[in-house]
Design brief:
Strand content: 5-15%
CATH superfamily of the domain at 439-673: P-loop containing nucleotide triphosphate hydrolases
Helix content: 55-70%
Strand order of the largest sheet: 5-12-11-6-10-7-9-8
Structural class: alpha/beta
Largest sheet: 8 strands, mixed
Number of strands: 12
Shape: flat
Distance between the termini: 13 Å
CATH class of the domain at 439-673: Alpha Beta
Number of helices: 24
Radius of gyration: 61 Å
């Protein structure tokens, strides 16, 4: 296959030369569309009225009420957040438009003085344009009219009506707010009186002193008792720990620990006497022995010292226990008194808390009343409140030049757009014709054009070969694909069914016979075989039986009335891709090459059947047949890609069913007469 093969995604659909030729071929259609479109646009431009636009600019400032603590008193629902976009909506509202229509006598200026203002709303809204200038507070009010003076007049009138509407709304707002203040102040006065009476009534009923002294007495007594109770508990815990430690030390006989735990001087003195007696016993025992009267007297003194220590410890324990009992009694009395005070204080505090709640409510109402009275006086003093929020920065003036483009410019644009529309229609038509148009399209794919076959009502008629133009077309295909080469086995395939493969094989075989060539045609179309029908021969053993070894090659070949031999398809039941891919097919082709000058194989479409791909690798060349201007380039490229992947020897492409008159229009020269061998 040619090394110049172009991949499907590499083909360049935009060729300047072809674009120019396409426009030239459709020059008449382009002229008709351009002229007709331009005439319609020209009529519209010439009859289109001239419009003028005038713009008035205003700056919006929201007037604020100078009311101290007003938001706290009245809340924020009566005055919402102000935005420029809100005012833009007001400027484009229907109510304001009706006011302007009436004030500017818009109906008379349009020549429709008898129409109701509501009927003029649509025309007025279409001519009015209101826009905010970025994030600033400036708003432009623009009006369009056929008269420059009317445009400026109506724009200024609309701004004036907008300001008047603001003044009216402000006055209504002041009146509503004043009325609301009157009602609110009256309600607050009644509320203050009612809450003051409630405070005095509750104070008299519960006999509560003024101020907070009573509450502080109870709290101070509780604090004093708590301060006494805490150190008493600490001392009691200390005595208990000493008692427990002494009892454990006596039980275990650890006298040293007892001396450490107690600070009694008697125990310390007795402990010293015990130590001295113990030392004397040890000295006498070592000096006189165990039977000496002095030793016995010393031992009695040691025992007496130890007995005195035990007696003294018991006294210390009794003292500590007595002290603990005293602490317990004091703690019990203090805790009992604390509970009594807490109970009494809780009841008293509840009354005081309720009284304070009533007093807080009364004071809050009084504060709110004072604030309302102060704000009400401030509201009455703000005379300039009922003023418009918008101030005119610049009034609209009558424009000198119309706002719409000049008619000369519109004519030029209409001419250009008319030509562009005509070219677009032409290219749309060309895109719908997605098939191969001429040899140039084939060459762009990196392939060789083999030839063309003109369209005929009956392309398989026996009398067709007698026509010089048809015979010449077949001759050129022969010269381009066979003459001067050693190719004998040629496979004919296509991308899709019904593209003319069988017709070409039939006519080419007929032509080769006329050149005294021995020709064998093999029917390898396993989808819809037509050769037996064209040759008027019944189906029988053929290719499938030969490949499967059921029939000999000579027995599968039959002669036809047209002079060439035919190998039929055979029984489809025996169809086997493995059989076609085996050496049996190669051996059959080699054998047939010795008996025939040319072997023409009619195969099925590549994109729908894999058998064609298998056979294409086993022949000397593959010729692609495609329906002129019908089979899409994409399908042809996909078929070529499949053959390229298996290294099939593609010789080129034949354009079939060509309308010669139309073909001459879509080709750059006479290339349909210039097929060459190679």
């Amino acid at each position: 296959m040619s090394s110049q093969y172009i991949q499907p995604d590499q083909i360049n659909e935009f060729d300047i030369r072809e674009i120019v030729l396409t426009l030239w071929r459709h020059r008449l259609l382009i002229i008709i569309i351009t002229c007709s479109t331009f005439l319609v646009a020209l009529a519209f431009i010439l009859t289109r009225p001239v419009y003028y636009k005038a713009t008035a600019s205003i700056m919006v400032e929201k007037g604020e009420l100078n009311l101290p603590d007003f938001a706290e008193v009245k809340g924020g629902e009566q005055f919402g957040n102000f935005t420029v976009q809100t005012e833009v909506k007001v400027l484009t509202s229907s109510d304001l438009a009706l006011r302007t229509i009436d004030a500017a006598k818009y109906g008379e200026k349009l020549g429709r003085a008898d129409m109701e203002p509501q009927a003029l709303l649509g025309a007025f809204a279409g001519a009015l344009s209101v826009s905010a200038q970025g994030s600033s507070k400036i708003i432009d009010v623009t009006f369009q009219s056929a008269s420059a003076q009317d445009a400026a007049l109506i724009a200024n009138t609309h701004v004036e009506q907008y300001q008047n509407l603001q003044i009216e709304n402000k006055q209504k707002e002041v009146n509503n707010l004043s009325e609301w203040f009157h009602g609110k102040v009256s309600d607050l006065k009644d509320d203050v009186v009612e809450k003051s009476q409630a405070v005095e009534a509750y104070r008299a009923k519960e006999n509560l002193a003024i101020g907070k002294g009573s509450e502080e007495i109870f709290l101070q007594e509780i604090s004093d008792l708590s301060a006494q109770l805490t150190p008493l508990q600490v001392r009691r815990f200390d005595v208990e720990s000493k008692i427990q430690a002494l009892e454990i030390a006596m039980k275990e006989g650890v006298v040293d620990n007892i001396v450490t735990l107690t600070s009694s001087p008697n125990i310390v003195s007795l402990k010293q006497q015990e130590a001295e007696a113990k030392l004397q016993v040890q000295e006498l025992r070592s000096r006189y022995g165990s039977k000496n009267p002095k030793l016995m007297a010393a031992q009695n003194a040691l025992a007496q010292a130890r007995q005195s220590i035990s007696t003294e410890i018991e006294k210390q324990l009794e003292t500590l226990r007595a002290e603990k009992a005293a602490f317990d009694a004091q703690e019990e009395l203090l805790a009992k008194r604390l509970e009594e005070i807490k109970y009494t204080t809780a009841a008293q505090r509840e009354k005081l808390i309720h009284l304070k709640t009533l007093m807080v409510e009364r004071d809050a109402s009084q504060k709110q009343l004072d604030s309302f009275l102060a704000n009400y006086e401030s509201l009455q003093s703000q005379i300039n409140f009922a003023q418009p929020d918008a101030s005119v920065i610049s009034k609209a003036i009558a424009p000198v030049w119309p706002s719409n483009p000049s008619k000369a410019l519109l004519v030029v644009v209409a001419a250009l757009l008319s030509g562009a529309l005509a070219c677009t229609v032409v290219f749309a038509i060309e895109m719908l014709r997605s098939g191969l148009r001429n040899y140039e399209d084939i060459r762009r794919m990196g392939l060789k054009p083999i030839g063309i076959l003109p369209e005929y009502s009956d392309p398989t008629s026996d009398s067709l070969m007698a026509r010089s133009n048809h015979r010449e077309a077949i001759k050129k295909i022969y010269v381009a694909a066979f003459a001067g080469t050693t190719r004998k086995s040629i496979l004919f395939s296509s991308a899709l069914p019904q593209e003319g493969r069988t017709t070409l094989v039939y006519n080419l075989a007929h032509y080769l016979v006329s050149l005294n060539k021995k020709v064998l045609v093999i029917d390898a179309d396993f989808v819809k075989p037509m050769l037996t029908h064209l040759c008027k021969i019944e189906e029988g053993p053929g290719l499938m039986e030969v490949l499967n070894g059921v029939t000999k090659i000579q027995d599968a070949i039959i002669s036809t009335s047209m002079g060439f031999s035919l190998m039929r398809r055979g029984d489809m039941v025996r169809l086997s891709p493995e059989g076609m891919a085996s050496h049996n097919f190669d051996e059959m082709i080699d054998f047939l090459k010795g008996s025939f000058d040319y072997i023409l194989i009619d195969s099925g479409p590549v994109l729908s059947h894999s058998e064609s791909e298998v056979l294409s690798k086993k022949v000397d060349g593959v010729i692609i047949v495609t329906h002129w201007m019908k089979t899409s380039k994409r399908n042809v490229l996909n078929m070529l890609a499949a053959l390229h992947d298996i290294s099939a020897p593609v010789l080129g492409i034949v354009l079939n069913n060509v309308d010669l008159d139309r073909y001459k229009k879509v080709t750059s020269g006479s290339d349909f007469l210039m097929a060459r061998a190679g």
